[in-house]
């Protein structure tokens, strides 16, 4: 049932649990030994006492859903990565809460090297299967960097992703992250301008795509993540987040969750 009304195969979540499907690329999946921003967001929910399952608790607990659980394993690594390979069995930093990993709390739909256009055909089935309340779309850099697509191309892919998510569940909520900058790459001076053009258009288009039943919200990760053309102190390699970057990206999501949806006592504080 692509309308999201059939719950025979997927149990309905407790009323006070928010199910989130995070759809992304390497910035979201993370590499072996990383904490990931997904974990920092998960911690924020727990620190705001969203883990109670009592029926009178008004604040939701976070349940990540999706087909994968792990990071990119070090045996694969980004240098010998085939984008068709689903390398998702890597572990996290040893300090992560066991309830997150290996305890099953780390589910996601993020794969190293994935462009947005490659996810379009798969998203409907993922949403239909897991019935998330919220889909996070954190994609786009690879469309520009590896496929040399234009801002309009990525915008079209995002619109299709919104449509496909709604085929899986008609009342699904969506967060779309803007595209963060990276350190300037010689020979690819086009990327910063394309990124800025896309982000400006996305801020307008999300209002057109949003409906009362299925709202679409932009998350301006680029305003919190301290990674830019000139310098990237929050990045491990000029693009992917380091430990600080994980906190900053998670903060961008918590700002929206708190300021627009009244979750938590305040946005995540970056240490």
TrEMBL record:
Entries under InterPro entries matching the protein: Ester_Hydrolysis_Enzymes (IPR051532), SGNH_hydro_sf (IPR036514)
A single Gene Ontology MF term assigned here is: phosphatidylcholine lysophospholipase activity
Gene3D superfamilies for this protein: SGNH hydrolase
User: Is Nucleotidyltransferase one of the keywords UniProt gives this record?
Assistant: no
Q: Which UniProt keywords are listed?
A: Hydrolase
What is the name of the protein in this document? SGNH hydrolase
> What is the scientific name of the source organism?
Cryphonectria parasitica (strain ATCC 38755 / EP155)
